[in-house]
């Protein structure tokens, strides 16, 4: 799984039948809908955007401002870039006292999918990122020994690693958690239509006329192009592929298999559609690492989740 903030999911929203760049939904041609209000920026290192529809644009603009405050709060929990974030302090000290409810919740969900995937998803993957990103020539087996989700204890009062040198990354699940949080707040505030892209994508409601928002999937063989589209209506999407970030010309990329310590390469791309972005986020990583054979069992543990797998020969399988 990925161990550092990066845009490992690459996708585009297609509005009104027109291909549009990531984060620039531009759905102003939707008939029967008010003008969209948009925001573009970055969340946990991922290119991000929010598009809201409301009869009163000032209400939408005010809501976006409120959501940015919530995003800032959550970045103070999950960001690996910020030295003062909860994760950064945990990784630095090996222990964190009085963690936020958000961190405990995400770790609980991480533990569940780590167990279900037999460790293909592991939140303690960060030492592998550090090893490969630094180009270190040390022994990989020693680094792999630091990746073990069962050696992490997490409760409402304390989170701690069992071994010195362990470190946490939640980039395979936290972006989904933040995406869900923002989408659900907007729904509770009365918004009926929005598309939220905060590392993962989640649609609130549907496009004008009740049609799903059309989402284009990057072609893993040619990341500059779109391979196909899927519809999203009150659902979330996450896409994992090794084309997002490569370390060198050797084929090493940022989605690591904890079992080998090396980049996972049994699939070219995994796209997961699920009711929640946090599910889609973790499942896309777990299936990409665990491989096609584990996909059905993993998806069966999350009601309403399905996946589109792209094999290394370019063939597709829907699960």
How would you describe this structure in keywords?
single chain, 319 residues, alpha+beta, eight-stranded antiparallel sheet, 8 helices, 26% strand
Fold and architecture overview:
This protein has 319 residues and is of the alpha+beta class. It is 31% helix and 26% strand. It has 8 helices and 15 strands. The protein has an 8-stranded antiparallel sheet, covered by helices on one side. Strands 2-1-10-11 form a 4-stranded antiparallel sheet, with no helix packed on it. Strand 6 and strand 7 form a beta hairpin. The longest helix is centred in the N-terminal third of the chain and has 22 residues. About 8% of the residues have low confidence. GO terms for molecular function: metal ion binding; transferase activity.
How would you concisely characterize the structure shown here?
By secondary structure, this protein is an alpha+beta fold.
Helix content: 25-40%
* Radius of gyration over all CA atoms, rounded: 19 Å
C-alpha termini separation: 20 Å
Give, in order, the helices and strands. Answer: EEEEHHEHHHEEHEEEEEEHHEE
What is the averaged pLDDT score? 87
Please state roughly what percent of the residues sit in beta strands, choosing from under 5%, 5-15%, 15-25%, 25-35%, 35-45% or over 45%: 25-35%
- Can you list the strand order of the major beta sheet? 3-4-8-9-12-13-14-15
Instruction: List how many beta strands DSSP finds.
Output: 15
The number of helical segments is 8
| Poorly predicted parts | 4-30
Classification by helices and strands:
alpha+beta
Overall geometry comes to: globular
Q: Largest sheet, if any?
A: 8 strands, antiparallel
């Amino acid at each position: 799984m990925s161990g550092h903030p990066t845009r490992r999911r690459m996708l585009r929203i297609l509005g009104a039948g027109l291909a549009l760049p990531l984060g620039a939904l531009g759905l102003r041609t939707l008939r029967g809908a008010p003008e969209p209000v948009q925001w573009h920026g970055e969340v946990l290192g991922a290119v991000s955007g929010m598009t809201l529809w409301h009869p009163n644009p000032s209400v939408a603009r005010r809501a976006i401002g409120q959501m940015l405050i919530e995003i800032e709060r959550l970045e103070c929990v999950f960001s690996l870039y910020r030295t003062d974030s909860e994760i950064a302090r945990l990784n630095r000290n090996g222990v964190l006292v009085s963690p936020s409810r958000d961190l405990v919740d995400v770790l609980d969900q991480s533990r569940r999918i780590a167990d279900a995937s037999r460790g293909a998803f592991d939140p303690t993957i960060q030492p592998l990122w550090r090893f490969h990103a630094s180009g270190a020539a040390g022994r990989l087996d020693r680094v792999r020994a630091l990746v073990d989700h069962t050696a992490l204890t997490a409760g409402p009062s304390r989170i701690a690693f069992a071994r010195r040198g362990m470190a946490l990354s939640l980039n395979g699940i936290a972006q989904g958690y933040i995406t869900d949080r923002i989408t659900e707040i907007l729904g509770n505030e009365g918004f009926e239509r929005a598309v939220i892209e905060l590392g993962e994508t989640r649609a609130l409601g549907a496009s004008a006329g009740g049609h799903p928002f059309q989402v284009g999937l990057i072609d893993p063989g040619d990341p500059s192009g779109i391979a196909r589209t899927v519809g999203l209506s009150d659902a979330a999407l996450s896409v994992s592929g090794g084309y997002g970030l490569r370390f060198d010309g050797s084929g090493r990329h940022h989605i690591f298999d904890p079992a080998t310590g090396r980049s996972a390469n049994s699939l070219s791309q995994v796209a997961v559609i699920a009711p929640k972005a946090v599910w889609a986020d973790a499942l896309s990583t777990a299936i990409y690492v665990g491989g096609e054979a584990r996909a059905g069992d993993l998806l069966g543990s999350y009601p309403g989740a399905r996946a589109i797998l792209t094999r290394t020969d370019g063939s597709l399988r829907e699960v």
